[in-house]
Every structure is written in structure tokens, then in C-alpha cells.
């Protein structure tokens, strides 16, 4: 065992030592050199339009958020490239919509198989451009692949209906047909899975797509483009238009207002979603919106506290608290409040290891940028100034690394209970009754307070990585389980479970958390129109 590790193990004995442990890991990361080989397989840096790699007049940098170093420069596509991509998608749609469901299914399956074959390369790209620990990045690739696999099967199950007619001389047919070109605007926190969850459904339905990835994580989208080509997807069916923060407004306007685009699927902030809805209204486009959320995590007195602690660790600290279904507001009943805090703090000390995502023992990487870290610290300072107690963390380590933070004696009026955090902050509120917990949990209309509703934030800044209206609670009282599951005003509910997402189930929110559903058999419906065909003039007799 190295001298550093011996010292680290000795320091685990106290809370202060645990803080020093976190710093030691981060400092060790700073002393090492981490780099992404720009010539590595699947590292692509140009846009992808109509089956060809396209350059732009300028390029923009992609940064490793753990070190602050530049790892690649990517083509900075503008409105001209975006328009070319839309036109290419529209042209390709004319043929793709007539490709048989069996053929579309086969191509999606080939794409999924290639992702599995190249999972190490894809995961490495995710780790370097988003900071996600390698183990989680590999998990994302498996999750991302599962959507292509699922929708490859759903492609062959897009059924219409034959409806009994009230007239003897007519037949009523309901046909399902693809809507057309879909603009796909995705965030950085799941730079692969957010694409395949949307694109898999769109392609299964017979639509073509133009993907606008987040500026922080364009490499994952471009790697998917390369594999789509290898899988044999026809030119123009899958297009990728990366761009910088500065180009995003003009690119976004093309993707959301061009009359050839008939569908928009967006994951991001409620504020930006409202802007896109207004743009979509001009040409009455179909929309799917996965918007802001503020997920509650409730622990009732009948809960298995140890199980609840493990659920909290999984729900809160995956990807350093930057997941789409991350718990934000922790509500714990009075009789188990102190026990939960004690056990959760011990689990944080024991399980969380801070460092560069490429290190095998890292569980907590950096936040995506300094603005994200500033937000966590701002919420922490606000809570402490209003009487909350700091039990763990509470400080920036370096760059965009933030120590996992645990706060006790939090009140519902504190900033961390009003805004989504998207970072490793656990604010814990004490409650006495089920009705009180539900009142707090259902009080949020969601949305990211203080973020401007402009297209500069769309799919680039930290305004576009919000959760989609989920909630969690722990209880062993079956009557209570049914009551609370039905009463929570959210789109996803985890009962005694901290990890929910799977392609077989729906994903989406309620209230201002969004419109529509992704995943499951319902995900394909978002990309289909239903056409009524009345077949008349039939002779009822021979």
C-alpha cells in the first residue's frame, strides 16, 4: 500500500479527516496527467450531414471538466449547416418512411451491436468530455444501447386499427404514419443515452432526425454518427450539428422554426422549453419536452432506514448529482431523522471517492463547469446563513469539483428547497405527518429559478440538464405506499427504490416538468400521426 493510501485510510476516522480525504484524492488527480487521444477510434470532430463529415468556418473547444484542459476542437456549425441538415433529413425521409419495419428494426439492432462492440471507446469519450466516472460511463453506454435494442423491437409493433363501422358499406381504418423530420436537442449529463432514447423511437417510427448535442459533449454524438454509418443507416436519416454556445441561438432557431421540421424533442430547462414551445407554435409542430424537476426523496418512519440510505446514495450521487432523475429535496420523518442522517453521513464517508473519472476507484467526478459548482455553493451558503447545520462537505475543492455536502435542519423556504441543485448537495428536512410531507413534495411547479429563458442556454449550458418530474419514497406500510404513490404529483415514482430508468418504462414529467413520454411502447407514439381512412362504397352483399 502506498504512503498516500496508508495516510488516507488513517484519516477516515473522523469527519474532518473525511474532508481531508476528499482533498487528497483531488490533489492526487491534479498531479497526474489525463488526456484523450484525439486519434482514438470514434473521436470525430466534424459535423455529420447527409452521410458525410462536414467542416465549418470555425471550430470550438471541448474541455475535460476535471482538469480544465482542451481535449478536442469541433466544427462550429452555424445556421447554414443546420439548414443543410434539415434539408438532408427531409430528403432522406421520403425514402426512409417507406423502408419496411423489419429493415428499420435490423438497422437499429446493428447500430446497438456496434455500440456494444465499442463500449470502451464510447465510455472513454463520455468520461473525458463530461467528467463522469468510467464505471458510470460504461453503465451509460449499456443504458444507451438498450434504447436502440428496445426500439428495434418496437419498430415492428407499430400497429394501426380496424374499427367496427356503424355503416355496412364502409370500413374504418386508423393508420399510424411517421410525422417527418425531428429536431433532437439533448443535454450533456447523458450525452449518449439522451440521444438514443429519442432517436431510437424516431427512427423506429420512420422519421429522420437532426441532432443538436450540448456544446460540452459533442464528441459522444459524433461517435454515434460514425457508428450509424457503419451500421448502414441511409444518408440523411441521422444528422449531427454540433455548435458552440455562441452559435446555439441561430442554430436553434433553424431547428425549431424551419417548416420542414415537424417534431421537436428537447431535454432541458422549463424556461428554455417555453421558448421552444413558442417557436414550435409558429408552424404548429409536434413537441416532446423533458423539462425542469425538483424530485423529493421521502423517508417515512416505517421505512427500512438502511435501504433508504442506499437508495439515497444511488439517487443523489450518481454522476455527482447530475442525473435526470436526481433527488433534490430529502424529507425524513422525525422518528428516524437522526438515524438517517448518521447512517447517510457514514455511507458518504465510506463510499464516495473524488477524482478524475478515468481512475478506477473514482465515484465522484467534477461538475460540468464552474457555474454548476457556483450554484451548489450558493445554495449551501444560503442554507447555512438561515440556520441549517453542515454535517459533511460544504466547499469547493478545485476547479468544478465540489465536496459532497450533507445539511441538516433544512427548512422548506431555503434556496436549496426552491431550486433544483444538479450537484452533490443533500438538504434534509424533518417532517411529522404524511400530509405534511406530501404538501412539501407537491409544492414545486419546477423550473430553474434565475436562469434566463434564452436559446443560448439550450442544450449547452447548465440550464438544460434538469430532471423530469420524479419522486422517491421509502415505506413498509402498504396502505401508505398506495396513498403516497397516487398522491405525488410527478411522472415517475420510485417506491423503496432509488434507480428507476429502463427502456421498458415511460419517462416524463407533469405540470411544468414537460410534455409527452419517452421510452416504453408509448415512446414511438410521440413520432407518429394517426390517419383515419374511410373505405366506402362497399357492397354489403355478394
Class by helix and strand content? alpha/beta
The number of helical runs is 16
Main sheet characteristics: 7 strands, mixed
Instruction: Measure the end-to-end span.
Output: 90 Å
Strands side by side in the biggest sheet: 14-15-16-13-12-17-18
Uncertain segments: 1-26, 446-468
% residues in beta strands:
15-25%
Q: Which bin fits the share of residues in helices?
A: 25-40%
Please report the total strand number as a whole number: 20
Backbone CA Rg:
24 Å
Sum up the overall morphology in one term: globular
Question: What integer is the average pLDDT?
Answer: 90
Describe the structure.
The chain is 39% helix and 18% strand. With 542 residues, the protein is α/β, with parallel strands linked by helices. Strands 14-15-16-13-12-17-18 form a seven-stranded mixed β-sheet, sandwiched between helices. α16 links the parallel β17 and β18 (492-495). α1 (3-10) runs antiparallel to α2 (15-31). The protein is globular and about 80 Å long.
Amino acid at each position: 500500500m502506498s504512503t498516500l493510501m496508508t495516510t488516507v485510510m488513517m484519516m477516515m476516522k473522523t469527519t474532518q479527516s473525511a474532508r481531508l480525504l476528499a482533498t487528497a484524492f483531488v490533489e492526487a488527480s491534479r498531479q497526474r496527467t489525463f488526456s484523450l487521444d484525439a486519434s482514438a477510434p470514434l473521436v470525430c470532430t466534424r459535423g455529420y450531414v447527409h452521410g458525410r463529415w462536414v467542416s465549418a468556418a470555425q471550430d470550438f473547444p471541448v474541455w475535460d471538466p476535471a482538469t480544465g484542459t482542451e481535449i478536442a476542437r469541433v466544427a462550429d456549425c452555424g445556421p447554414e449547416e443546420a439548414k443543410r441538415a434539415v434539408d438532408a433529413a427531409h430528403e432522406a425521409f421520403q425514402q426512409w418512411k417507406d423502408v419496411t419495419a423489419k429493415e428499420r428494426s435490423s438497422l437499429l439492432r446493428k447500430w446497438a451491436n456496434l455500440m456494444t462492440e465499442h463500449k470502451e471507446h464510447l465510455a472513454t469519450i463520455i468520461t473525458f468530455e463530461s467528467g463522469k466516472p468510467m464505471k458510470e460511463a460504461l453503465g451509460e453506454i449499456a443504458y444507451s444501447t438498450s434504447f436502440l435494442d428496445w426500439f428495434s423491437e418496437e419498430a415492428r409493433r407499430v400497429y394501426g386499427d380496424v374499427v367496427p363501422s356503424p355503416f355496412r358499406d364502409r370500413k374504418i381504418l386508423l393508420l399510424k404514419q411517421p410525422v417527418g423530420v425531428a429536431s433532437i436537442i439533448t443535454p450533456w449529463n447523458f450525452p449518449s443515452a439522451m440521444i438514443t432514447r429519442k432517436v431510437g423511437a424516431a427512427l423506429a417510427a420512420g422519421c429522420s432526425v437532426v441532432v443538436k448535442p450540448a456544446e460540452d459533449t459533442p464528441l459522444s454524438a459524433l461517435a454515434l454518427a460514425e457508428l450509424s454509418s457503419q451500421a448502414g443507416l441511409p444518408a440523411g436519416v441521422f444528422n449531427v450539428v454540433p455548435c458552440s454556445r455562441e452559435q446555439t441561438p441561430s442554430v436553434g432557431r433553424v431547428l425549431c422554426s424551419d417548416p420542414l421540421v415537424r417534431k421537436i424533442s428537447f431535454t432541458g430547462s422549463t424556461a428554455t422549453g417555453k421558448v421552444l414551445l413558442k417557436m414550435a407554435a409558429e408552424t404548429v409542430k409536434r413537441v416532446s419536452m423533458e423539462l425542469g424537476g425538483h424530485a423529493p426523496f421521502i423517508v417515512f418512519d416505517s421505512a427500512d432506514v438502511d435501504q433508504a440510505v442506499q437508495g439515497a446514495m444511488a439517487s443523489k450521487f450518481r454522476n455527482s448529482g447530475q442525473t435526470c432523475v436526481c433527488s433534490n429535496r430529502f424529507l425524513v420523518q422525525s422518528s428516524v431523522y437522526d438515524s438517517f442522517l448518521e447512517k447517510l453521513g457514514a455511507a458518504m464517508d465510506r463510499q464516495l471517492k473524488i477524482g478524475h473519472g478515468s481512475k478506477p476507484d473514482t465515484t465522484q467526478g467534477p461538475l460540468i463547469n464552474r457555474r454548476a459548482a457556483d450554484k451548489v455553493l450558493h445554495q449551501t451558503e444560503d442554507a447555512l446563513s438561515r440556520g441549517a447545520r453542515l454535517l459533511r462537505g460544504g466547499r469547493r475543492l478545485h476547479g468544478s469539483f465540489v465536496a459532497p455536502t450533507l445539511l441538516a435542519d433544512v427548512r422548506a423556504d431555503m434556496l436549496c428547497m426552491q431550486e433544483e441543485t444538479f450537484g452533490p448537495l443533500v438538504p434534509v428536512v424533518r417532517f411529522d405527518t404524511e400530509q405534511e410531507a406530501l404538501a412539501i413534495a407537491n409544492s414545486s411547479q419546477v423550473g430553474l429559478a434565475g436562469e434566463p429563458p434564452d436559446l443560448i442556454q439550450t442544450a449547452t449550458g447548465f440550464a438544460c440538464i434538469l430532471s423530469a418530474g420524479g419522486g422517491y419514497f421509502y415505506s413498509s406500510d402498504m396502505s401508505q405506499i398506495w396513498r403516497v404513490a397516487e398522491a405525488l404529483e410527478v411522472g415517475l415514482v420510485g417506491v423503496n427504490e432509488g434507480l428507476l430508468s429502463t427502456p421498458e418504462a415511460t419517462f416524463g414529467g407533469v405540470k411544468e416538468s414537460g410534455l409527452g413520454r419517452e421510452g416504453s411502447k408509448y415512446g414511438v407514439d410521440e413520432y407518429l400521426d394517426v390517419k383515419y381512412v374511410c373505405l366506402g362504397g362497399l357492397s354489403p352483399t355478394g
